[in-house]
Amino acid sequence: xxxxxxxxxxxxxxxxxxxxxxxxxxxxxxxxxxxxxxxxxxxxxxxxxxxxxxxxxxxxxxxxxxxxxxxxxxxxxxxxxxxxxxxxxxxxxxxxxxxxxxxxxxxxxxxxxxxxxxxxxxxxxxxxxxxxxxxxxxxxxxxxxxxxxxxxxxxxxxxxxxxxxxxxxxxxxxxxxxxxxxxxxxxxxxxxxxxxxxxxxxxxxxxxxxxxxxxxxxxxxxxxxxxxxxxxxxxxxxxxxxxxxxxxxxxxxxxxxxxxxxxxxxxxxxxxxxxxxxxxxxxxxxxxxxxxxxxxxxxxxxxxxxxxxxxxxxxxxxxxxxxxxxxxxxxxxxxxxxxxxxxxxxxxxxxxxxxxxxxxxxxxxxxxxxxxxxxxxxxxxxxxxxxxxxxxxxxxxxxxxxxxxxxxxxxxxxxxxxxxxxxxxxxxxxxxxxxxxxxxxxxx
Length: 444
Ligand code: GLU
Fold this sequence. Notes:
With 444 residues, the chain is an alpha/beta fold. The chain folds into three domains: 3-52, no CATH class; 57-190, Rossmann fold (3-Layer(aba) Sandwich); 206-368, Rossmann fold (3-Layer(aba) Sandwich), CATH 3.40.50. Helix content is 49%, strand content 15%. 52% of the residues are buried. The mean pLDDT is 98. Bound molecules: glutamic acid (GLU).
């Protein structure tokens, strides 16, 4: 059995009940086989892969808080500090009822490679809670965030571990978390990113993930003598990533015709009116369904199936494993040529393999959604310097980072004779830097 297969079997045996983590590890190990095979003895004797798949530390804790009825609620809190070879742990916090250790380990593992690809000095981590912010009052969200941070603040810091947002954690939550960190630790430091602009946040951080997705899509298209101009695009989700992907794609001449949330999807053949989506999602914290009531010609369909809408470009920006084999088959049958992931691992392994085998140009999230965390790293730099850069400066840096990521993953794929296999390219390019740094630092 090859070394990569052995390590995968060990991961499955030693981490029972963690299917998402197994899935993320398998994809990476399968990609790395060509690299490992060249130098298997060395990697094996140093247990490089065993170290890579084992988080440096997992913190798990109780989060008690009082709801508006005076009842005490208890949630689970976690921080997975996966790898600090190239910088302090960096990665978001997810608040969603589905959160468990498997999901946070998969996200933390992906984050290690993603952060490496940004070229910036950030290690990988992820955290969160099974708390569901949906339907909670501001006071309840604050009570939860304060309790969560009262425990988490013992383990994080501007040079140790810098969390940010993810699903269910936006500007409001980051504000409450930052306030409690400062109060308990008595430190005004850049311990979280995605902060508000009045207290150390960076311009463009809100837009960064979605903009980055479209910047790298644009590079991919340019490299294949194509452009977004006049293309029909479907963007899944309607959170922060989706909203700003729609904005940038529209600015670059595309027509985005559909978005969704976990209840259903909207189709607007005239092109999505983003002001209305923003009002529904960002101001009213409502459901995407309302769009069809407010916009003439738009329809709402309850349930899954957004992939039935014909498009040239599909940007899955909702959540893990949202796009399966049937979905991808339908997309391709309808002429879809590009799939670029805005969410983390939104495409199942079968769907990814099918798409790539059938001529779709596919960019994996760890490369294509890296603009968010990259801009977080820019926020960390500004906090350390106690300066704030203009939005033009940050946007230009973000754009260049995405151009560089495309070049890196395309080059790695070519070096291993798999041109346009950006899954392999991203995994190899991300791995090379992390492993080099780990080896240089000895047995740690
Ligand atoms: N949660 C985002 C991600 O998946 C952003 C993390 C960050 O900004 O630290 O990369």
